[in-house]
Amino acid sequence: MFWFRKMGKLFIKTLLVILIIAQKPNLMVIAFLIVDRLQRNSRQWGILLLKDKGLVGYDDTLGKFFPELPYSNITIQQLLTHTSGIPDGFNLLSEFFDHTKIATNNDLIRLLAKEKPPALFNPGENMMYSGTAFNILASIIEIISGKSYNEYIDKHIFKPLGMTHTFVVNGTRSAKLIPGYAYGFVYSDSLQTYVRADSMRSGWTSYLAGITGEGMIISTTNDLLKWDRALKHHSLLSVATQQAMLVTQAEKRTFPFIHFGYGIRVGENDFGNYIFHDGWYPGYKCMHIRYTDHDITAIVLSNNESHSIILQMLWQQ
């Protein structure tokens, strides 16, 4: 599914049927897809909303919220900008967690505290994408707000923006109960055809499906456009906080060169200044980009791990 909008006016809204493999021809235009890492921005909005209320600060450390973790000097700022150096908690879940059960954020934090893997680098001295950092931020939202991550994000972001078709889920198990949900498909080399991603067991479709913060949100192009317009018009965050969110806060100085604001990539190419994020989950790909100088937005959701020319072109921008 694809949205293209310029200066607030809709130019294209269409299903890219070339990207979608379906067993039945009755695809719904309102199709729910897992947008996973693309919607990590909802989590960072949650933290920034709490910051605007004076309930958390950029310099607050992990030691304040999780004294049992051996990374007490890592700050909220560093978690938001991929500069924390916190080790990958998913590797610990893969090695030490019972794969017949569904892990939660508490399980991830418990294993970090128990196994104490060393930091990847000193906080603030390097930049490396960290999904674990986003999971911890989701847990910090729960500690401060006294609500589950799902409840807080729904009450303070989805409902105020009218995102009525966006939900936090626990993998395809809970998502499949939603009418209009579009299953993800992957290509099977052995069968030489596309099959449903949840038919091919992986960590993300089984024991990791209960982890929230980095992803596990489903949405539609319509709702993501509402989210994009909220960014444009400062609908939720204070002007100062949103400006800080959308400028370079951290920079990767080795190839590929990447600039991050708070939870979102920022940069410039031949088309102008942009804000950008993409995402992946077994059977799904998604991306959102807005060229801020001319207010041009493109949103693409695919329930097929396609390597089509169209997606390659968009991902390379």
What secondary-structure arrangement, pairings included, does this model have?
Blueprint: E1 2-6, E2 9-14, E3 33-34, H1 40-52, H2 62-65, H3 76-80, H4 89-96, H5 105-115, H6 131-145, H7 149-158, E4 167-168, H8 171-175, E5 185-188, E6 193-196, E7 217-219, H9 221-233, H10 239-245, E8 250-252, E9 258-260, E10 265-269, E11 272-281, E12 284-291, E13 296-302, H11 309-316
Antiparallel strand pairs: 1-2, 1-13, 3-7, 4-7, 5-6, 8-9, 9-10, 10-11, 11-12, 12-13
Structure summary:
This protein is of the alpha+beta class.
Notes on the protein architecture:
The structure is a single chain. The chain has 317 residues and is an alpha+beta fold. It has one domain (2-316): 3-Layer(aba) Sandwich (Beta-lactamase), CATH 3.40.710.10. The chain contains eleven helices and 13 strands. The protein has helices spanning 40-52, 62-65, 76-80, 89-96, 105-115, 131-145, 149-158, 171-175, 221-233, 239-245, 309-316; strands at 2-6, 9-14, 33-34, 167-168, 185-188, 193-196, 217-219, 250-252, 258-260, 265-269, 272-281, 284-291, 296-302. The strands form three sheets. Strands 2-1-13-12-11-10-9-8 form an eight-stranded antiparallel sheet, with helices on both faces. The model is unreliable at 10-32 (pLDDT under 50).
